[in-house]
């Protein structure tokens, strides 16, 4: 089994964009530890990296990718625009591309909704960046349904992805359905920070599969087709978190984990 990918439509050059369901998160990784963690992640098999202008590590992520020898077109790269850069979108993505050492990213997200009234203008600049081939897809982060609908209504273009805080304890089928209805891929962040990894439901299921609860949480996301981007600076955890293709959660186990969201 390999990690599946979700379609995000087509890039400006007509090629399909595919987003792997498992990515490697890089928030709070800086300098040499960011470089080493990304090297370890690529070695462990991750083919999706999540960074942001705000993380201050794009140069290390780019250098790790280059030194890894993994071909650029085999890795999905996301970066994000800090909302305070509204009005300076083009300069910001050009700096990201320079630091990452790539010609285009795969996904560019508005990191957080800009102050009232500025969201649509930023979104228009995002659409232009996609048309110019600087990013293959565009999306948002930390948006609610109403904020997504405003972008669609004003521009006719719906974000391909919404990256939001997510995990079993935040599971709400209505949130998932609202994204699906709009054709927006739900990408969850902070899967471990939002989860009690000692919860008896998770430890029971983990024991049944001979894995740790962290992997159960990641597998649960994948089976719901929710993109998940765990972060770690620990080599053993980086490798273990990617090792989630050789077990499958049963329907009963999926429902038991879903129920953590109703507690
Ligand atoms: N769009 C946004 O606003 C936003 C906000 C937050 C995060 N994100 C993205 O989402 C990514 C993930 O979220 P996150 O970094 O907040 O949190 P996370 O991935 O939920 O948790 C990271 C923490 O979990 C620990 N950990 C990793 N693997 C583990 C395992 N197998 N067992 C137990 N603990 C484990 C890590 O420790 P060690 O590192 O010490 O191993 C670290 O302390 C970020 O890195 C970033 O790329 C986006």
From TrEMBL:
Signal peptide: none annotated. Keywords: NADP, Oxidoreductase. It comes from Paractinoplanes pyxinae. Residues 22-260 form the NADP-dependent oxidoreductase domain. This is Aldo/keto reductase. It holds the Pfam family Aldo_ket_red. InterPro entries: AKR (IPR020471), Aldo/ket_reductase_CS (IPR018170), NAD(P)_OxRdtase_dom_sf (IPR036812), NADP_OxRdtase_dom (IPR023210). Belongs to the aldo/keto reductase family.
């Amino acid at each position: 089994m390999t990690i599946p990918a979700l379609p995000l439509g087509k890039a400006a050059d007509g090629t399909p964009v595919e987003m792997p369901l498992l990515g490697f998160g890089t928030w709070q990784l800086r300098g040499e530890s960011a470089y080493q963690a990304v090297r370890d992640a690529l070695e462990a098999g991750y083919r999706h990296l999540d960074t942001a202008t705000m993380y201050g590590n794009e140069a290390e992520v780019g250098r790790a990718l280059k030194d890894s020898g993994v071909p650029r077109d085999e890795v999905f790269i996301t970066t994000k625009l800090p909302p305070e850069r509204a009005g300076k979108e083009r300069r910001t993505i050009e700096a990201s591309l320079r630091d990452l050492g790539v010609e285009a990213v795969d996904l560019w997200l508005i990191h957080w909704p800009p102050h009232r009234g500025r969201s649509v203008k930023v979104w228009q600049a995002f659409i232009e960046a996609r048309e110019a081939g600087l990013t293959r897809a565009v999306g948002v982060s930390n948006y609610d349904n109403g904020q997504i609908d405003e972008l669609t209504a004003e521009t006719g273009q719906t974000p391909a992805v919404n990256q939001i805080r997510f995990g079993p304890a935040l599971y709400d089928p209505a949130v998932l359905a609202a994204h699906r209805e709009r054709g927006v891929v739900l990408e969850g962040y902070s899967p471990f920070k939002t989860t009690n990894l000692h919860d008896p439901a998770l430890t029971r299921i983990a024991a049944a599969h001979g894995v740790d609860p962290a992997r159960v949480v990641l597998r649960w996301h994948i089976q719901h087709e929710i993109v998940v981007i765990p972060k770690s600076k620990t080599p053993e955890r980086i490798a273990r978190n990617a090792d989630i293709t050789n077990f499958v959660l049963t329907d009963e186990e999926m429902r038991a984990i879903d129920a953590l969201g109703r507690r």
